[in-house]
Automatic annotation (TrEMBL):
InterPro entries: CO_DH_flav_C (IPR005107), CO_DH_flav_C_dom_sf (IPR036683), Diverse_Substr_Oxidored (IPR051312), FAD-bd_PCMH (IPR016166), FAD-bd_PCMH-like_sf (IPR036318), FAD-bd_PCMH_sub1 (IPR016167), FAD-bd_PCMH_sub2 (IPR016169), Mopterin_DH_FAD-bd (IPR002346). Residues 1-222 form the FAD-binding PCMH-type domain. PANTHER family: OXIDOREDUCTASE, XANTHINE DEHYDROGENASE SUBUNIT C-RELATED. The keyword Transmembrane helix does not apply. GO terms for molecular function: FAD binding; xanthine dehydrogenase activity. It comes from Kushneria phyllosphaerae. PROSITE patterns: FAD_PCMH. This is Xanthine dehydrogenase YagS FAD-binding subunit.
């Protein structure tokens, strides 16, 4: 592990102005991603700016019904917040399915949005990886790619986005609020993470020097909600496939639906084709299966991860079925 300079800041403008506009600096919040990657020599910041004391730990309802979540709200506090449990159960379930209690106590909302892929080649500086070192090649495409993506891939990178929380947020609908040298701006949550394309090193729409200050959740959608996570073991494990579903019924028909996927895609994935296939249709097993087919119509399998297409479809069907049951309850 290389030595770095550590600086603590107490105010947002201090954090933003302290951050020099180059790769040699990084923010640290809970530290559960950053410190691992520094120890592995994957990230090599010369300076780390500790933002954990910034006044960004509040959760407040806005006049228009949306919920403003400070970037430093811990994953535990967000999952257990009364309004989140009542109005956004899909998000609460997604958060509680992630990592472990100890990690969730440290992990922050902003840090979770910014967490990096768990691709083992990315985490091994001795292996070629376009995301870590652009132009060096992708070791996963011809390598062990059992945990990699089947949606949103490119010839440069097929790494999955590992977050559960972000999948819940895509389903619930949200906005990322950023503060930077040029002031404040907002980005729709589902546009914030980028597809790898030709530039897998660019993972999100965060401009140099910017800090995430808040995530604002859309007003609660109601309906029945469920987050289903399928993984190799029942806890302390990343998703092989996951699905966040929100189903609103009008009688026996689906009047509105949101479907988001994790573990199968290069970014937290909104499955709009599945939503379109289901809207206005009776909430039946057959129609859930049609929606699942639509969700994976463009999926591309690599040598070891073809099973994810089947598993992902099963996750969609089961999540829709459970969300529908919750809507009927
Ligand atoms: C063993 C293990 C298991 C895990 N399992 C899961 C799991 O099952 N599901 C899941 O979803 N996650 C899982 N995680 C990931 C965990 O959720 C993340 O590590 C955590 O959310 C990151 O938050 P943090 O505050 O600790 O971020 P940090 O480590 O402090 O920062 C992470 C990155 O975000 C940047 N950053 C932090 N805050 C901001 C901000 N406000 N604005 C801009 N940039 C910022 C940092 O510079 C850094 O690059 C696991 C992690 C570990 C170590
Ligand atoms: S999948 Fe992406 S992160 Fe993994 S080795 Fe290839 S380029 Fe690197």
């Amino acid at each position: 592990m290389r030595a770095f300079e550590l600086e603590s800041v107490e105010a947002v403008d201090q954090a933003v102005s302290h951050r020099r506009v180059h790769d040699g600096e990084a923010f640290i919040a809970g530290g559960t991603t950053l410190l691992d990657l520094v120890k592995l020599d994957v990230m090599q910041p010369e300076k780390v700016v500790d933002v954990s004391r910034l006044p960004l730990k509040r959760i407040e309802t806005l006049e228009d019904g949306r919920l403003k979540v400070g970037a430093l709200v811990s994953n535990t506090d967000l999952a257990k917040h009364e309004i989140v449990m009542r109005g956004y159960p899909v998000l609460s379930e997604a958060l509680l399915s992630g990592a472990s209690t100890g990690l969730r106590n440290m992990a922050t909302t902003g840090g979770n949005v910014m967490q990096r892929t768990r691709c083992p080649y990315f985490r091994d500086p001795d292996m070629p990886c376009n995301k870590r070192e652009p132009g060096s090649g992708c070791s996963a495409i011809e390598g062990i790619n059992r945990n990699h993506s089947v949606l949103g891939t490119s010839e440069q990178c097929i790494a999955t986005h590992p977050s559960d929380m972000c999948v819940g947020m895509v389903a619930a609908g949200a906005t990322v609020v950023l503060e930077g040298p040029d002031g404040q701006r907002e980005v729709a949550f589902e546009d914030y993470h980028l597809l790898p394309g030709e530039t897998p090193e660019r993972e999100h729409d965060l401009k140099p020097g910017e800090l995430i200050t808040h995530v604002i959740l859309d007003a609660p959608r109601g309906g029945g909600q469920h987050y289903l996570k399928l993984r190799d073991r029942a806890s302390y494990e990343f998703a092989l496939a996951s699905c966040a579903a929100i189903v609103t019924l009008d009688g026996d028909s689906v009047s509105d639906v949101r479907v988001a996927l994790g573990g199968v895609a290069t970014k937290p994935w909104r499955a709009t084709a599945a939503e379109e296939a289901l809207k206005g249709q009776p909430a039946t097993q057959e129609n859930f299966e049609r929606a699942a087919e639509a969700a994976f119509a463009d999926a591309v399998a690599y040598s070891h991860n073809g099973y994810k297409i089947t598993l992902g479809k099963q996750a969609v069907v089961r999540a829709l079925r459970d969300a529908t049951a919750a809507a009927r309850a």
